[in-house]
Sequence to fold (159 residues):
Amino acid sequence: MAVKRTTATDENFILLVNDLDKELAVTDGEDHAFYDQFNKLDAIKHAVVIFENDRPVSCGALKYYSNETAEVKRMYTSPDNRGKGNAGKVLAELEAWAKELGYKRCVLETGINQPEAIRLYFKSGYQRIPNYGQYAGVEKSYCFGKSLGNVADSKKKNH
Fold:
């Protein structure tokens, strides 16, 4: 297994995100277009891809939300690689990277139709928070937040 920090222009990240979007089109159904508008890659500068046997199997990304908060986006593990802890590894890598970038907190949104994701976030120390930003008032959205602890030396973020 290899973990790669990259950008949203990485071909392996894009490949996994395309698979994610196909899956979400099914699980989100008629709500997919609403959620899809908030998941464009142009605002993402930090992405993580996990490889097994040189094959990309899991990914996630960070997006600037505020000076102190990074938003976790585009979390996905290919179906044949689920249940192996890859998503947890991606999330831990994203949190470590966010902390290095000077963020103090991570937030994220997932949907009511993603019970595996909800379990992962609770297991990883995230707590349910009021729906933020574009998700405020959206009943099928579940928002989560997690403090990254003390950040000693806040670095400038490239957002």
Remarks:
- The helical segments are 11-27, 32-36, 86-100, 115-123.
